[in-house]
Amino acid sequence: MVSTHMSAYTYPRRQFLQMALAASAAPLLPSAAFASLLEEERTAWYRNAKFGMFIHWGPYSLASVEASWPIMRPTPGGITEAEYRALPARFNPTKFDPQAFVDLARSAGQKYMVFTTKHHDGFCMFDSAYTKHKITNTPYGKDIVAQLVAAAKHSDMPLGFYYSPPDLYHPDFRDTSKLAKENWEGEPDRPEWPLYLDYMELQLTELLTRYGPAALIWFDGLNNQRKYNGTHVLDLIHRLQPRTLVNDRIGVPGDFQTPEQFIPNAIPTRNVVVTGIDPSVQNKLVATAVPRPEDFQLWETCMTINDTWAYNKHDLNYKSADFLIRSLVEVASRGGNFLLNVGPQPDGVIQPEFQERLRAIGDWLAINGDSIYGTTYGPVQGVKGVRTTAKGGTIFVHVFDWPASSLEMKGVDPKILSAHLLANGQPLKFNQTESGLRIDLPARAPDGNVSVIAMRTL
Hints:
Keywords: Glycosidase, Hydrolase, Signal. Belongs to the glycosyl hydrolase 29 family. Its EC number is 3.2.1.51. This is alpha-L-fucosidase. The longest helix is centred in the middle third of the chain and has 17 residues. Helices cover 27% and strands 16% of the residues. It is globular, with a radius of gyration of 23 Å. By secondary structure, the chain is α/β, with parallel strands linked by helices. The protein has a 7-stranded parallel beta sheet with strand order 5-4-3-2-1-7-6. Strands 8-9-10-15-12 form a 5-stranded antiparallel beta sheet. It has a 3-stranded antiparallel beta sheet with strand order 11-14-13, with no helix packed on it.
């Protein structure tokens, strides 16, 4: 049954009627302009949210290994495929508290969540009717996705579903008599391939009809994504849930692009594809350029807190709270979203090192959130030690390297009416001329991580 719960990413009735009236007048408008208006309205909540929680979790957490990849690209002395396949028989996260997940995201200042419903290994964290390889056939026996959906609904937290198009368990995706390392990319030339596409469509239909409104679908199609018939999949999603956003990893352009583990060094634009794990794609961007709004490409960097997506007790290389706060600022200054990952422990608890860092980010956002939420890229780009965002008639200046007395900037064209520190409201003296802007600052930065100056413009 489809939930009728109203939230930040569903249609209010009045707005729906207004959009319907606008649609009826569409022939009077240029089609490209109308499509742009619809896109902007659909993505408004996402553009405003800026910061989300990614969750990679499954039986693989028992072995402290990455999700799926140990059987796709096994390493000498690592877990065998047989050992990996046996993990669900021991998976019993009795300490899982879905409300604790949502509450942690809220305390971190995260405005949406994305949960891995199925990774490449094919194991489903929801009670799919089309496979036995699922959470309800483990000792735990309960639908994880359903519980998280209920908690998110209770807290009005937009929840999206990661869904992997590859499925190493399914015999129509590949010849499962072979080890996954031999054919993990799938075999679309086999006669069974259309049956696998049907399976994928059935599972997506389950996610989009049984679990209420889906904020987004986050595909991870890996190589040769065109084999999944992405246009047909998008049509299915838009038919079942027109409001649901879709990323760019199923062989066709989506609502947003997804650079992974890196932050583009300039504002992404529609003429450049910035996605995947290869940072070299950003070399086509212009570091100091500020694009027109219609040329901006919506994007989202996903990143881990340590070096692993899944829980790994051996991975102690944690990024500092300061690094993560600055990463959030970097992303927002270029108009993007920051999807920060956690890998829960096998007992269902998010490890304390992750919780500590998330709450530190939340503490910073509690004071400085106005400079992140609802903003877009700022007018000053490519200047060392300074990042800017903008919202309405306000420019926010994020100062990484606090100067001794004054901050001097070029490229601020609007007339500045006032300036103050966001942390404590202290007004600041400034002088704006044709050659640049100088802001007088106190000797000490008000924030130990990133201090923010709010400038009201004409």
